[in-house]
Write a structure and sequence with these properties.
2 copies of one chain form a homodimer. With about 230 residues, chain A is mainly α. Chain A is about 70% helix and about 0% strand. Chain A folds into 2 domains: about 10-60, Arc Repressor Mutant, subunit A; about 65-230, Tetracycline Repressor, domain 2, CATH 1.10.357.10. The structure holds a DNA duplex (30 and 30 nucleotides).
Chain lengths: ~230, ~230
DNA sequence: AGGCTAATGTCAGCCGCTGACAATTGACAA
DNA sequence: TTGTCAATTGTCAGCGGCTGACATTAGCCT
């Protein structure tokens, strides 16, 4: 008899999981080496030795596979936000949620693909027009969810009070910007994006002041690797 | 002999212009009646009685034709911003630019397509995932341009001082939000979106205050047609 | 072992899009 | 006017993403 302990379920289930993982990895590997556009679905399928049709049974589109990991990461942020203590102000809570999420997200990614592969994929997303477009749409879908979450925390009605949506919109705008800058920079590490995030979020308040000429110059933003990453 | 006065240039040029206009209108008409996805490029070409290949010689993609008018509108905003007096603070200048642009944009649109057709197209864009994605990407491309413009106004270096990009990001976030809400609402008029814009921009400052519970409740946001549109 | 069902492969076909080449049609000069 | 040149268009073939339909394979369960 077989003493195999089904690590999660039946053989069928495990096989499916392995196929999905293999497709995901092969896709990201090809995307990051040849580029997204220059990679055909047939290539991905061939690399895993399944038919093209099978690829589309696991991922609804070529785009979807590119965002599989990203989707997980976003889930982490939402979870982190949900766990912020109620006394924190909206922007404070969002800020803390991102920063704390960046600290624990490495583990979660590693279970699916090498972290370094994910980082490279993110850069591909940011630099491929078609993917960037989808990325942005996904982002605003998340914005809506977060706005509702914030409204709930504050005991407000998202549709009656504009402040939750406005705050989240402003916050997400900054987040996107850091993502972009990070993608363009050279330091493709989790620490780098975390530091970048922290530094730019600190400017959200000051940037909205009416008069920029009166005050003293703000701290210079970190261009790329900010030596020791902010503690 | 023919006394035809070439309204703009040679016959060839006029013919090209007419074909382009016809394709544009036919496309938007079909998009707004059947939906974007359910409209094929062949249908558009057939409606104008040209080959599919010809369509692609005028528009690089099916998406591009959907954004033709939008592109013009964006140009207007940038022009308006360029003309704002230098003493206005960044957010003030952007705010005034949008509002003044909305006032003159009607004319410009009318020269190409019926305004009402443009408005319906905007709603199609906002409600079609594929188009929404592209719309967002185009938006952030414009953000980058505006950030540089603002930085120039203020005599700053976009890459050294984070405030221009941050302010523009926050501003654009709010703008996108109003566009979305407008698309969902029922009043598909230029006045409606102008009023919506004005109302929400007024909340940009207050929304970023740290404590939302201390202060008194803010004015209720206009859900849709806000009666008389703000002067 | 054998039946059941889920997963996969195969095939045909639509749609967006492109390159190549031929046919058409303005533009312009002789 | 006519003929030449160049721009515009049509036609055709083909690639890549994606889907429905149907046959085939392979895990599951009695």
């Amino acid at each position: 008899m077989t003493v195999e302990q089904p690590s999660s379920a039946g053989l069928r289930e495990r096989k499916k999981q392995r196929t999905r993982d293999a497709l995901l990895r092969a896709a990201l590997e090809l995307f990051t080496t040849q580029g997204y556009e220059r990679t055909t679905v047939d290539e991905i399928a061939d690399a895993v030795d399944v038919s093209q049709r099978t690829f589309f049974r696991y991922f609804a589109s070529k785009e979807e596979v590119a965002f599989a990991v990203q989707q997980m990461v976003e889930g982490h942020f939402v979870d982190a936000l949900r766990q912020r203590p109620g006394h924190e102000a909206p922007l404070e809570a969002m800020r803390n949620a991102v920063l704390s999420a960046w600290d624990t997200i490495g583990e979660a990614i590693r279970e699916v693909v090498p972290v370094e592969l994910y980082l490279r994929t993110f850069q591909v997303i940011e630099s491929t027009p078609a993917l960037l477009a989808v990325h942005l749409r996904r982002s605003i879908e998340m914005e809506e969810n977060i706005a509702r979450l914030i409204a709930e925390r504050e005991g407000l009605d998202v549709d009656a009070d504009p402040r939750p949506r406005v705050a989240v919109a402003a916050f997400s705008g900054v987040m996107r910007m850091t993502g972009q800058l990070w993608g363009r920079g050279e330091d493709a590490s989790l620490e780098a994006i975390r530091a970048l995030t922290e530094a730019y979020l600190d400017h959200l308040g000051p940037a909205l002041a009416t008069d920029w000429r009166g005050g003293e110059a703000p701290a210079r933003a970190p261009r790329r690797t900010p030596g020791a990453h902010a503690e």
